[in-house]
DNA sequence: ATTCTCACA
DNA sequence: TGTGAGAA
């Protein structure tokens, strides 16, 4: 294996490895090449809001860093923060609809196979 | 040394 | 969006 396969399989919630490692705002800003102030803006605008630890400092997870990359792609293309928020809302909407569809599909398979 | 909030241009 | 003051 060339990659650290430490991925959990069946976890009972949003408590995965991608949510565990927390980066400081400084690390993330260096990693993404954007000023800390920009990260704080994103948090204030409810686009990517990291958890806070002890003294109220932002702690970014891997997942949030990835979300940040997506946001940067959009803003680089000229999408405003308000627009990004809408894109994110639509993205969540699609996910929930996909889940709902998966559920309906499962129910339908029961009927179809017993018909 | 870092990060936080708030304010200003 | 970037910068700086002042506190933690």
Q: How are the SSEs ordered, and which strands pair?
A:
Layout: H1 25-32, H2 36-44, E1 51-53, E2 57-59, H3 62-76, H4 81-114
Antiparallel strand pairs: 1-2
This protein binds a DNA duplex (9 and 8 nucleotides) through helix 2.
Pfam families: MerR_1 (PF13411)
Protein name: MerR family transcriptional regulator
GO molecular function: DNA binding; DNA-binding transcription factor activity
Description:
One of its GO terms (molecular function) is DNA-binding transcription factor activity. Residues 1-21 are annotated as: Disordered. Residues 1-10 have a biased composition (Basic and acidic residues). Residues 22-90 form the HTH merR-type domain. The protein has helices spanning 25-32, 36-44, 62-76, 81-114, and strands spanning 51-53, 57-59. The chain contains four helices and two strands, in the order ααββαα. The protein is mostly helical. 57% of the residues lie in helices and 5% in strands. The relative contact order is 0.10. It has a single domain (19-114), classed as Multidrug-efflux Transporter Regulator, Chain: A, Domain 2. A two-stranded antiparallel ribbon has the order 1-2. The longest helix has 34 residues, at 81-114. The protein binds a DNA duplex (9 and 8 nucleotides) through residues 24-26, 35-38, 40-41, 55-58.
Entry keywords:
MerR family transcriptional regulator; MerR_fam; 115 residues; mainly alpha; DNA-binding
């Amino acid at each position: 294996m060339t990659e650290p396969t430490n991925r959990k399989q069946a976890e009972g919630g949003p408590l995965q490895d991608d949510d565990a490692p927390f980066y400081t705002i400084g690390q993330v800003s260096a990693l993404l090449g954007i000023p800390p102030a920009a990260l704080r803006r994103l948090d204030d605008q409810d686009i990517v809001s990291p958890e806070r630890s002890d003294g109220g400092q932002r702690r970014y997870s891997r997942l949030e860093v990835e979300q940040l990359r997506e946001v940067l792609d959009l803003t680089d293309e000229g999408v405003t923060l308000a627009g990004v928020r809408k894109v994110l809302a639509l993205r969540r909407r699609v996910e929930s609809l996909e889940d709902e569809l998966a559920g309906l599909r499962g129910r339908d398979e029961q009927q179809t196979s017993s018909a």
